Amino acid sequence: MTSAPALGSASDVGDLPTSELLTHGRTALDWIARYLDHPERVSVLSQVVPGEIRQMLPVSPPEQPEPLGDILRDFETQIVPGITHWNHPGFFGYFATSSSVPGILGELLVAALDVKAMLWRTSPAATELEQVTTDWLRQMLGLPGGWFGFLNDTASISSMLALAAAREAKPELDIRARGMAGRADLPRLRVYTSRHAHSSIDKAALALGIGLENVVHVDVDDEFRMRPDALAAAIADDSANGFLPLACVATVGTTSTTSIDPVPAIAEICRRESIWLHVDGAYGGVAAIVPEMRHVLAGVDHADSLVVNPHKWLFTPFDCSAFFTTKPHLLEQAFSLVHEYLVTPERESVVDFMNYGVQLGRRFRALKLWMVIRGFGTAGLAARIRAHCALARQFADWVHADPDWEVVAPVPFSLVCFRFAPSGIHEEVLNDLNAKILERVNATGEVFLSHTKLDDRYVLRLAVGNIRTEEKHVRRAWETLKEQSITVSP
Ligand code: PLP
Fold first, then answer.
1. CB 3.0-4.6 Å disulfide test: which of 52, 71, 336, 371 passes with 48?
2. Would the CB of 251 count as within 6 Å of ligand 1?
3. pTM, full prediction
4. Are 342 and 394 found together in one domain?
């Protein structure tokens, strides 16, 4: 990248001239295009050791302005080596996610506008576009009308808001005004979710003062799905013991294996027991935009709230989590607090999104989602998700066909859980071998996978979700796994 003298001095006030934006913006865009076109130039998993990046960086900030060209050059030499490349087509870890050309452009424009989407008047277009894009997404997911949507940073926050609304659905608890601490009149509130639910549900309970002990982790069946009979029994048991069943969180696409909890049966129990049903579809829910996969959200029309993450599997740059509820007034009841400086004359006739959560200033996330949906079209987005699921099934077939390896969970989406398991080797040794394979595969820098544990078995996870991943990348992952399995074989 080019270097030029710094513009201005410490005594200047005001922004750098826009000529700087044009010059260095072009350089940055060139860099981005090269980066996306030539992922082989970088290692997927950063290969630095702890502290290596910090050591390259000055301990104190510069007093005098530095040339943007120098800063961009240092970005390449000092920052990029410490990046793990989620945008790399060989990224198969956790849930593989990626940004896309329309999404990147959206983020760029959002930074230029620097909107705080809290009140309608702080940018009418931000509020109204958020209403429109979340309603587009609702339609794409096949949800009926009457769902109110908005965008948060993460599913963790969306799920926390769902539990806050669930509390508000029991106004007799009066938690908004009186809190929970030190109240002898308050029963212990219980939240039910499966043993395979994401940790964000426990964290939401922790943040809301419900307490980790009051999150009941319901048993799962042999395909890692919540057992409705176990849920009903846990609720009955709690009710008999003076607890107050508050909410249930079902997952569509659990983190370890992408299992799908039986939402219709769970919804029936929640209705009977008058408890809030939140569906965590952070990753898997988005698949409902594929017409033949719409069934993954079966029963969700009977839920009270749902979260899906466009930043996971809808090619929208992080962060963008879509939260939907049929009872937005409960969120308003829980969180609306309008001090005089936020009162506007139009407040009765518009939506002010600050009233539905904790944040005042909110990012203009709708712009990038709007650009992604328009840039690919609903058919284009569905085609990409469909292709990812096909790649995952292809990989699962290769694993199935090799007697030394096994697939250890169903593959309803684009994640394969599998392990190296040659016959005659003790379970503990297998765990050790798979951990070693993973470490060696990731050290190649060509692909990156992560792991989980299922019933004490150490399991490898290959998640397809990156918009640039093609069959050759999945094939390379399989070859690398087999190569490394030879190096660890006992
Ligand atoms: N829920 C599920 C099922 C997840 O898999 C994850 C993350 O992978 C989350 C929630 C948390 O998502 P976020 O990072 O948006 O909070």
1. 52
2. yes
3. 0.95
4. no
For residues 270 and 318, membership in a common domain is answered with: yes
Q: Which domain holds residue 52?
A: 17-84
Answer whether 194 contacts ligand 1 (Cβ < 6 A).
no
Q: How far from chain centre, in Å, is Cα 468?
A: 18
Any atom of ligand 1 within 6 Å of the Cβ of 283: yes
Residue whose C-alpha is closest to residue 389's, from 280, 481, 297, 474? 474
Instruction: Kindly list the averaged pLDDT for each block of 10 residues, start to end, along the chain of length 490.
Output: 58 91 97 94 94 96 96 97 96 96 98 96 98 98 96 98 98 95 94 98 97 98 97 98 98 98 98 98 98 97 98 97 98 96 96 97 98 98 98 98 97 98 93 97 96 96 97 98 87
The pick from 194, 283, 413 for probing ligand 1's pocket by mutation, whose C-beta has the most ligand atoms within 8 angstroms, reads: 283
Beta-carbon count within 10 A of 57 CB: 10
Rounded distance from Cα 112 to ligand 1 centre (Å): 29
Based on the domain organization, do 248 and 346 belong to the same domain?
yes
* CA dist., res. 185 & res. 200, Å (int): 28
Q: E-assigned strands of 62-186? A: 148-152
Total domains in the fold of the chain: 3
Residues 342 and 418 in one domain: no
Number of neighbouring beta carbons within 10 Å of residue 56: 14
Which helix (H) or strand (E) segment is 281 a member of?
strand 276-281
Is 156 touching ligand 1 by the criterion CB < 6 Å?
yes
Q: What is the CATH number of the domain that holds 392?
A: 3.90.1150.170
State how far Cα 303 lies from the chain centre. 20
